[in-house]
Amino acid sequence: MMNNAVFSWRNVWFRRSVVALAGLTLLWMLVGFVWLPSVSVGFASEGVWASICRAAGVPAAWSPQSPDAVSPPVSTHVVLERTMAAPAPSRSVGRGATLALNCTMCHGSRGMSGSEAPNLAGQYREVIIKQLRDYQEGQRASTIMQALARNLKAQDIEDLAAYYASLPRPHRVETAPAQVPSPALVRVGAPLRNVAPCISCHGGVDQKLGAPWLEGMPRAYLVAQLNNFRSGARANDSHAQMRNMARAMTPGEIAEVAAFYAGDDAH
User: Fold this and answer.
1) Is residue 77 part of a domain?
2) Do residues 153 and 92 make contact, with C-beta atoms less than 8 angstroms apart?
3) Which SUPFAM superfamilies match (predicted)?
4) Which among 15, 93, 186, 254 has the fewest CB atoms less than 10 Å away?
5) What is the pLDDT of residues 123-168, one digit of tens each?
6) Mean of the per-residue pLDDT values of the chain
7) How many domains does the structure of the chain reveal?
8) What is the secondary structure of 131-195 as a DSSP string?
9) Distance between CA 68 and CA 45 in Å, rounded?
10) 41 has a pLDDT exceeding 50
11) Same domain, 183 and 246
């Protein structure tokens, strides 16, 4: 009898508890499904219902799409696969060497740039393939490179990548390695800012498919690319991986990392 009395609607404390719980539930539903989606990017273009579906974890296909919704730009159409990194036949290397005569003004006769263009000697095949395809399709911007890549056939790109990958790879020039320790961002990253260590993708510990070899690159080139990723001016990184890393980096860290990989003693 006592239990029935406690959970009776006539019990003022039970009634108040139910009303308070219902009120809190409604409040948090408004916060989670209305207020938070309203301050998120895309709310205005997709509408309230689409935002509620997204907040609830409902598949996007279940929610109606506004005809005015703007799709985010595709950063790259290139799908990286292991076959792109496989050794190329010697005939591709020979043909690539001939094609590379058009690239010597910026990238040097043996893939070592005398300007601020990237060094291509020893670069991973899939890296060169991806970047040339991105230039072709406009996913990476460069007036010169887009013009040069526009007329390249698929086999031309394969052969150029095979040739540059076959050349001796440059390394950082360190006069006193013991006195020039690698920056913390290179070795361990910045976990609290979700910045992975550079060596986890760019060599040293592991090389992620599609991540370029950085040692010996011109310092100004590395600074420019990191700043472009940081600002979003360059956006051909799959799943915004480099943009997410670079956005969390300070200008000083960008300069320090670039100087380290370039072998610049000034860092």
Assistant:
1) no
2) no
3) Cytochrome c
4) 15
5) 999 999 999 999 999 999 999 999 999 999 999 999 999 999 999 9
6) 84
7) 3
8) HHHHHHHTSS--HHHHHHHTT--HHHHHHHHHHHHHSPPP----S-GGGSPPPHHHHT-BGGGTB
9) 6
10) no
11) yes
φ, ψ for residue 176 (rounded to 5)?
-145, 80
Read off the pLDDT of each residue in 31-45 and give the average, rounded to a whole number. 56
All residues at 6 or more sequence positions from 166 whose CB lies less than 8 Å from its CB, including other chains: 88, 93
Is the domain of 151 the same as that of 199?
no
The answer on 35 and 11 residing in a single domain is yes
By residue range, what is the domain housing residue 229?
177-262
| Whole-number pLDDT of residue 28 | 75
The per-residue pLDDT for 24 is: 81
> Which pLDDT tens digit goes with each residue over 227-243?
999 999 999 999 999 99
- Whether 86 is in a domain gets the answer yes
Per-position b or e across 72-89, b if 16+ CB within 10 A of its CB: eeebbebebeeebbeebe
If phi over 0 gives left and psi between -120 and 50 gives alpha, with beta otherwise, what is residue 144? alpha
Residue 72 lies in a domain: no
